[in-house]
Amino acid sequence: MSLMTFEPCINLSFDGQCEAAFKLNERCLNGKITFMLAWRDSPMAGDVPPGWSSKIVHATLVVGNTRLQGSDPVPGSHESPRGFDITLNPSEGDAERLFNELAAGGTVRMLLQETFWAVRFGLLTDRFGIPWAINSHGETAKHVVIDRQEGSLYATRR
Is the dihedral of CA 65, 10, 129, 32 positive or negative? Predict the structure, then answer.
């Protein structure tokens, strides 16, 4: 069996705010929206209730070599994301900007700060309900050593 190429595509669901979320992410992440289709322009236009036709049935945002896809599913079928974060690994200089732009109007779950593994790390949920982790390694990661003691792993700074 040959090794599989692992290039995951993150697919996000929104409750009527996909277009606004993708436009924010395009700007914040310096990406490019390569596809956006409203329900009214799709073959499934008749499957959505009145007032939902301008919402998005499918969108694609390309950031580097990663694709984000998203949609506004029909009302009543949206579920809030949980159990994961989209982790970004920006330079130390971009960490503050990204954190602040994504956190605007959302919820900060952990302030952006220095940790033993990163020069800047923080957790937030943006105003569209998407959970993000900002993790800038900078020089700090070079000074962390993993020690095995009594069957457990411990990270220490050196």
Answer: positive
30-39 pLDDT, tens digit per residue, is: 999 999 999 9
Q: Which two tokens stand for residue 78?
A: 């949206």
- The whole-model pTM stands at 0.83
8-76 has CATH 3.10.180.10 classification: yes
Q: How many angstroms separate the CA atoms of 45 and 21, rounded?
A: 22
Q: Enumerate the domain spans of the chain.
A: 8-76, 80-158
Fold of the domain built from segment(s) 80-158: 3.30.720
Based on its alpha-carbon atoms, the radius of gyration of the chain, rounded to whole angstroms, reads 19
